[in-house]
Amino acid sequence: MACLRGWHVALATAEVEALAPQTKFVAMSPRLLVSSSQLETTELQQIITCSSGLQCFLDNYVSINLEHETIEDLLEKVTQMIQGAKFKGSLAVRTMRIDGRINGFSTQTTAGKIGSIAVAEQFTIDLETPEIEIGLIADGGSNIVACGWLVGNFDDSIGTANRRATERPFFRPISLDPRLARLAVNLACGPIDTQAVLDPMTGTGGFAVEAVMMGRRCVAVDMNQAMVDGTTQNIAWALQGQSAENDYQVITGDACELSETLEESWHGQISGIVLDPPYGRNSHGSQSHYDLIGKTLQSARMVIGNNAKLVLIVPIIPDKDDTGEIELLHGHWEELKQLLSDCGSTINGQWKEHVHGSLSRLILLVSIAPLD
Ligand SMILES: C[S@@+](CC[C@H](N)C(=O)[O-])C[C@H]1O[C@@H](n2cnc3c(N)ncnc32)[C@H](O)[C@@H]1O
After folding, report:
1. pLDDT-derived band at 249, boundaries 50, 70, 90
2. pTM of whole model > 0.90?
3. Domain 163-368 annotated CATH 3.40.50.150
4. Distance from Cα 328 to the centre of ligand 1, integer Å
């Protein structure tokens, strides 16, 4: 079972599906997803380490719905889960409440009972440095209580969820929120492999920093030298003085001329493009927004591999009445869709993200075909 963070459950669901493409996920509640197949613990750990929207996995989980089951039912299932464990050693039971309280249910009392069951099964309790952890999640929105071997943790003070672009040495108001940047890279590229991420308009390196931190190969481009220097600085800072094991490059050049801008060694190596183009009067001389996006995508098609995906982020006007309509801040949705289709692209997914009262973002996941 996957448990999502509360930030944007639809995007987080798409991210976990991208990171585990062989598995289907079915929502038991908005933040609890059940996977159709059992993933290896190492795979679960890798997904947790690189994901943005995922809080944790409960491996070999059991669950009850308190609307028609009891805490005793849960404890019976947990006993079987613990008895089935291949490993015995020191253990801690961690608890988390999501989406409010469940009336009459105490996570702490239940955790204590689960601890006693574990002790009866030859585990020892060590709350400081346990060898293994059990996660107990109480979902107040659905009255579901789930329990399983915890992969990841319940701590929101670490990881992408708590990082800020303002902490980086080179920050500008254009800098993307790290959690959205990381999620976009994962949506575009899927599981970490030997293929590379292309960030053609890197700015302060929002996407590139996340890609390199995850250990992905990455090539970032910007026509503004100050941005290239700033992104290089941000990546070095994120790596904390260590050299990246993966290969990455930040290049000064034009996103509309990627086959010349990118060294030959990157050609055909790119499986994901993440594009956050500039808007506003000073962005790119006389080129209109569509012109710039269109030329960037056509030039990207010269360097991408087969089955590449693009994540495009565009500013939109908030849909305050929840009509489902898309109103771009610059230009028209129908025109953008036409442009994407003219660039050999098919939209696979679209999500809105609230930024502030007068700004939202549209996040588009698009399949894009290479040009020979
Ligand atoms: C909205 S910003 C990107 C912000 C970035 N995602 C971040 O987290 O900082 C767009 C960037 O595109 C760059 N840019 C504009 N036209 C370009 C082009 N033709 N080729 C390369 N970069 C370009 C601008 O210099 C700017 O840094």
Report:
1. very high
2. yes
3. yes
4. 19
